[in-house]
Design goal:
3 helices, 93% helix, mainly alpha
Length: 178
């Protein structure tokens, strides 16, 4: 009977060690998965920065195009109309019309500039949120890994306790290896 008792004792100890090792491997994989998820989230931060660059470049092109169109399509048409009508362009209504057009155009540019700033703020907020999500993914992975390691340690301790109890009930190591 002592050979079976020795085998049982060894199996309990080996089982506990294997359980702890499996939990440690699972913890390592949980941490790796969290790191991978965080890196994907951080990639979104870079994509948002690229989006910001595209939006800002597009904004500048639109501003330049709008200025050209304003001068060509609005102010030039007003000047030609007044000149064709024989009005003096240096004073009075023609100048007032041109000034009003310019004020309206500046207002539109200000609104577009404001909207572009809001878009940039939204991108900044999205980047901060992504960064926080990446940190949270890492923390969750760390917590999961710690829980798995604790579970493995608990299993090892339980196995050691069962082995000790078995050894005690068998009358000690001398009786088991008799």
């Amino acid at each position: 009977m002592s050979i079976f008792a020795a085998i049982s004792l060894g199996a309990q100890l080996i089982g506990g060690v294997q359980s702890r090792n499996a939990a440690n491997r699972a913890a390592k994989r949980a941490q790796q998965a969290a790191e991978f998820n965080a890196s994907i989230i951080e990639r979104d931060i870079d994509l948002l920065e690229r989006q910001r660059g595209i939006i800002n470049a597009n904004f500048l092109v639109q501003q330049e195009r709008a200025e050209q169109e304003f001068e060509r399509d609005v102010q030039a048409v007003a000047r030609s109309g007044f000149a064709y009508g024989g009005f003096d362009m240096s004073q009075g209504t023609p100048m007032e019309v041109l000034r009003n057009n310019a004020r309206e155009f500046e207002y539109q540019k200000s609104v577009e500039r404001f909207n572009n700033q809001i878009t940039n703020l939204q991108i900044t907020d999205a980047q901060e949120e992504a960064e926080l999500n990446a940190q949270l993914a890492r923390m969750e992975g760390g917590a999961t890994a710690a829980g798995l390691r604790a579970q493995g340690t608990r299993s090892l301790i339980s196995s050691l306790g069962q082995a000790a109890q078995f050894t005690y009930q068998a009358g000690g190591l001398k009786e088991i290896f008799k």
